[in-house]
Write a structure and sequence with these properties.
The protein is of the alpha/beta class. It has eight helices and seven strands, in the order αβαβαβαβαβαααββ. It has a seven-stranded mixed sheet with strand order 3-2-1-4-5-7-6, with helices on both faces. The chain starts with 18 loop residues before the first helix and ends in a 5-residue tail after the last strand. The model has no long low-confidence stretch (mean pLDDT about 90).
């Protein structure tokens, strides 16, 4: 096991996480507004999102650091390429098998990472010039944080007793800063699930910026 890397997130079935029900249609709507066809899912889990994108006509591939998730993905979706890589790995290992992608999606992953800056760096290496990165993560903002405190759900929401659980809690500002510091320009923010400002998740769409040599 690599230091600061969880290699078992408990994938045991082909059933999608509950977040996929409200996030997948939203992600598809965003992707349809972008000039992209080949999509990489970073943290593809058991392959449900890749399967959804493939059924919508996209050429999808996934990388997942949990070998159990990769086994389920390959068994359930043999027509899709899944790789047992994590963001701590060298992207050239993936690019030995795949051409650079038009877009990268990463849904409800970055909150689990000890070193979250590795995700946009990995994505950037895997994208074509001007490619897009779409990241989703649980939403945190003043009203939602206040509601959690008033309802005495703060401790449950931030529980440390979930192996492989959430260890980073993002706001729109902090996630935007992370992407900006790693070569992306944020184009769009949206909230998904529940009432406005009490959203379950937030979604940032960013474009890979050209860097001078």
């Amino acid at each position: 096991m690599v230091a600061n890397v969880v290699d078992d997130y408990g994938w045991a079935s082909q059933e999608g996480p509950h977040s996929c029900a409200y996030l997948a249609p939203h992600l598809l709507g965003l992707l349809r507004g972008l000039p992209c066809h080949r999509i990489l899912d970073i943290g593809s889990g058991n392959g449900v999102l890749c399967a959804y994108l493939s059924s919508a006509g996209y050429q999808a591939a996934g990388v997942e650091c949990d070998p159990g998730g990769v086994r389920i993905s390959r068994k359930t979706n043999p027509h899709i390429a899944f790789y047992n890589f994590g963001v701590q790995d060298d992207p050239s290992k993936l690019l030995a098998h795949e051409e650079p992608f038009d877009a990268v999606v990463s849904s409800e992953v970055i909150e689990h990472l000890f070193s979250p800056h590795l995700l946009p760096r990995y994505a950037s290496r895997c994208l074509k010039p001007g490619g897009f990165l779409i990241v989703t993560t649980p939403y945190h903002g003043y009203l939602k944080n206040l509601a959690l405190a008033v309802m005495n759900k703060w401790d449950k929401h931030h529980t440390v007793l979930w192996h492989g659980g959430h260890i980073k809690f993002w706001s729109r500002a902090t996630l935007s800063q992370l992407l900006s510091e790693n070569g992306f320009r944020v184009l769009r923010f949206s909230g998904v699930g529940r009432l406005p400002y009490l959203w379950k998740s937030m979604v940032l769409v960013a474009v890979k910026e050209s860097r001078p040599a």
